[in-house]
Amino acid sequence: MKIEISASKREVRGTGASRRLRNAGKVPGIVYGGDKPPINIELDHKALFRNLSREAFHASILTLKIGEIAEQVLLRAFNMHPFKLQVQHIDFQRVSKEKKIHMKVPLHFVNAEVSPGVKEQGGVASHVMNDLEISCFPDDLPEYLEVDLGKLSVGNSMHLADLTLPKGVEAILRKENPVVATVILPALITEEEEITETEAAPAASEVPATAQVTPEKAPEGPAEKGGDKAAEKGDRGDRGDRGDKKEKK
User: What is the pTM (predicted TM-score) of this model?
Assistant: First the structure.
């Protein structure tokens, strides 16, 4: 797919100039790489924002027109506003047909719904990887890589070695033969387990009253100390009464 975007040279630089551009509906950017010096550019925000929503825009050779000059570039980076749907800055890199490029390409998973693990065994396809970093010449760059899950059963996995890469495309591995996708059984609670849990749980009437009510702890303070003294006086008074009665006898 050929995608063409238009830009113009940006003569002014700096934080203030970039802010004024954004307020005017423009996006500051830069083009670098190759045998040419970097060029500061500005692009229309609306058109750029629509392109960024397209998957192919992130993994394709783009034709960038700056005035009358057209260059082949790759999208390398873009910054978004922290909470607004606004592109703050964008970077493009020139490409040469004679030099290989490194690029992350999205993975498209197909036939999961007809696989034995999903259709017959009630499993769910789990995507361990969503994109793959590859190396190739610009003319060999694919928009995406297709991953066929049609033969997977529950508990089985598809590894990178199981994929058929297009001609001229090499995978850049971070670890040897990583898992790309697998089919697993969802964690479900059966009816028998629910019944068992219900029977095991004690009814409210079976719980001892002492376990249901937690008495509040009396606050410690002057009032408590006063109550203790009063209790001591009462005890002494009781003992005095009993002593008087003994003397009378």
Answer: 0.68
